[in-house]
Amino acid sequence: MAFLLGCEKASVEFPTKRVLEDVSLGVDTGDRIGIVGRNGDGKSTLLKLLAGCIEADAGRVIRTRGVRVGMLGQVDALDDDHSIERAVVGDVPEHEWAASSRIRDIIAGLLGDIDWHGTVGTLSGGQRRRVDLARLLIGDDDVLMLDEPTNHLDIRAITWLAAHLKKRWREGEGALLVVTHDRWFLDEVCTTMWEVHDGRVDGFEGGFSAYVMQRVERDRQAQVAEAKRQNQLRRELAWLSRGARARATKPKFHVALARELIADVPELRDTIELKRMAMARLGKQVVDVEGVTVRYGGDAAGEGLAVLDDVTWLIGPGDRYGLVGGNGAGKTTLLKVVEGLIKPDAGRVKTGSTVRFAVLSQHLDSLKEVEGDRVREVASRYSRRTMLDGKETTPGQLLEQLGFTSADLNEPVRDLSGGQKRRLALMLILLEEPNVLILDEPGNDLDIDMLAAVEDLLDGWPGTLLLVTHDRYLMERVTDDQFALIDGKLRHLPRGIDEYLELVAGRTTDRASSSSAGSASAGNGQSEGDVPSTDAAPKLSGGQLRELRKTMGSLEKKTATLRERIAATREKMAQVDPSDYEALVALQEEIAAYEATIEEHEMAWLEAAEALGE
Hints:
By secondary structure, this protein is an alpha/beta fold. It contains 21 helices and 20 strands. The chain has a 6-stranded mixed sheet with strand order 5-6-7-3-8-9, sandwiched between helices. It has a 6-stranded mixed sheet with strand order 14-17-18-12-19-20, with helices on both faces. Strands 2-1-4 form a 3-stranded antiparallel sheet, covered by helices on one side. A hairpin with a 2-residue loop joins strand 1 and strand 2 (17-28). Helix 4 runs antiparallel to helix 5, helix 8 (208-242) packs across helix 10 and helix 20 (542-575) runs antiparallel to helix 21 (581-612). The longest helix is centred in the middle third of the chain and has 35 residues, at 208-242. The radius of gyration is 35 Å and the shape is elongated.
């Protein structure tokens, strides 16, 4: 295909309305384009702009040299005093035009019932339309632009015109742009659709029927996406305002507005109903870990490192527990004890008879057997529906909820991204209908939007949930209670992660101040590297407070500057030639770097705010 004509960042403005705004498009050889849109949205204006009948107020129209364009307007420019013959063929002698079978066919097809020697002024509206069409079609234009060509034509003439346009050029030659309300005509002659709306032009493949189906699906997806986005935003805002994160983010919110937005938002989870459903599936007993001790590197006499030291953990139906602790603290060991994969050196584990475990591991072991299969094939093996949020959900609905597109369904599992594999593994686990779900770092490889989707999915899961993650936000968002493993002991955290950080900070201070040899053995299972670098002492001096406030102010200024740079870079992008991909990519990378730095500044700001207790 060769480029014939088009426009770049073209805008057309009328005194009361901007009809086209920053429109960029092109017409190639072989194109058969139908143009649709509401009346007044700019269909005819776009046609006139490309034909050169009007000029753009901004941007430019491009035309390949030598391209011939023929235009049929809604109003003809025929002279009433001219004969039909002169109006159609002009001053060309009869022996010349009559020698062309193409011209004879056009005249016979459109003007067979009209007196060839009569005058234009005596014709009806439909007859004038056919004369004007015949005048245009006998030409040898490369591009035909037809504005409402079927107006005033009867069915026979419309059928003839469609057949003529379909065979006028050989495949891959010429180009047709047509504005019409005749849906049959559009389906018959067009292979591409342009929809003009709100100053924009959106393209769709296929004729009118295909356009309608795509349009309905696009609108449906947009509505679903917007509803999900609004719902997620309101749920996030509700949690932020009610949960542990609220203290650190208060300076960023207008509290009155936030309360108004979340006034009718229910709690994220109906805990009582979920527990009732979980009890129906599990009974009263799930897993009771009682006085369990697990040692590594020891002997039968009990010597060695006590990774778990007299741990008691009673897990009931519908409990949603989070487990935190430093690397090497024994979290994985405790979960394996719960599953029954590790036998404790002391104590006992009682597991309910109806318990069915499912584990989402960090290494996604469950996907190794299906790496060569396509996502669609894997999902099709699960005909069962699973209960989520009180409703039956199919595998297809789960895939959609987890962000898989129709294109993703045809991808082999091995070719999926890390985040897609993690989401697929989670879906397969849920379809197995376990009643105790163990998630080990489920947020790995997921972006923010997908994390929100996973969180919403887990909100409606009616079972017992055990979560291990270093993502504090995810931990507090998904679980109802948190526990910490410190020095082999399990501690409940009524105040959540804040309490854990205080415990670890206090333990670090005790270590530093202790001079006895015995104090060293108390922390044998932990190292200084287990303590988060952001921990601070419980009390801050006046100098430290001033320094933190100074840091927060500096970060706010830096962030504001970066946002200004992003805005300036985006303005610069608007001035770049759309075909200059290297320049556009370079500018987009510059914006991405700014955004990454802003994210770092915001996290540092939040950490400083937490240290201040704000």
